[in-house]
Amino acid sequence: MGIEETLATAWADLTRLEPAEALEAIGVTGTYIVDIRPEYQRRAAGEVPVAIVIERNHLEWRLDPSSDARIPEAVDASIRWIILCEGGYASSLAAQSLRRLGLLRSTDVIGGFEAWRAAGLPVDRPDRPRRPRGPGEGRWPPPPDAGGDGRRRSLV
After folding, report:
1. Of 37, 50, 80, 123, which one is least surrounded by beta carbons within 10 A?
2. Contacts of residue 90, Cβ cutoff 8 Å, sequence gap at least 6
3. Tell me: the pLDDT tens digits for 68-116?
4. Alpha-carbon distance 126 to 94, whole Å?
5. Largest CA distance in the chain
6. Are 80 and 32 in contact (CB under 8 A)?
7. For the segment 115-146, what is each residue's pLDDT rounded down to a tens digit?
8. CA dihedral 146, 25, 99, 74 (to 10 degrees)
9. pTM score, two decimals?
10. Do the strands 52-53 and 80-84 form a parallel or antiparallel pair, or are they unpaired?
11. H or E element that contains 58
12. Closest CA to 88 of 110, 67, 55, 64
């Protein structure tokens, strides 16, 4: 099977989200957006402020609840992971890979970061892109809309 068929299979298996739907969904407990873009893309275009940064090559290890290299949010298979890449292609393949690990609520953003930015959704332009999350690392400091424990409370 070639890449076009592989991508079509992934899309048929996922309930993909428009950017605004993804932003709305991450306000729900147990739902996170994960930016898998490499640093050079985040440096050039900006970052989604509420996203967890995990570059693609570490994704499965950071999100699999059974992995010793997981992040604290990866508590069980009920977590909903919304994957974001630059254009909405690599994220589909990544979400499908997570689903094969048993993370069946995984999905992605239609059109990726390009569509997110085009929709006028929040984008940060930090002087230096955030470092991808490592094993066991939580997000610190917490985003402005979070409580002291680093968990999101609301988006507004």
Report:
1. 123
2. 36, 56
3. 999 999 999 999 999 999 999 999 999 999 999 999 999 999 999 999 9
4. 26
5. 48
6. yes
7. 999 999 999 999 999 999 989 888 644 444 44
8. 10
9. 0.85
10. unpaired
11. none
12. 110
Distances (CA, A) of 115 to 13, 56, 64, 128, 156: 21, 19, 27, 22, 21
| Residue 7 to residue 90: CA distance in whole angstroms | 9
As beta bridge partners, residue 94 has none
Of residues 126, 125, 129, the one with CA closest to residue 117: 125
Interatomic CA distance for residues 107 and 98, integer angstroms:
9
- Which residue in the block uniquely carries the two structure tokens 């893309």? 41
Cα distance from N-terminal residue to C-terminal residue, the chain? 44
Residue 35: φ, ψ to 5°: -90, 115
Q: How far apart are CA 8 and CA 102, in angstroms?
A: 20
d(C-alpha 148, C-alpha 151), whole Å: 8
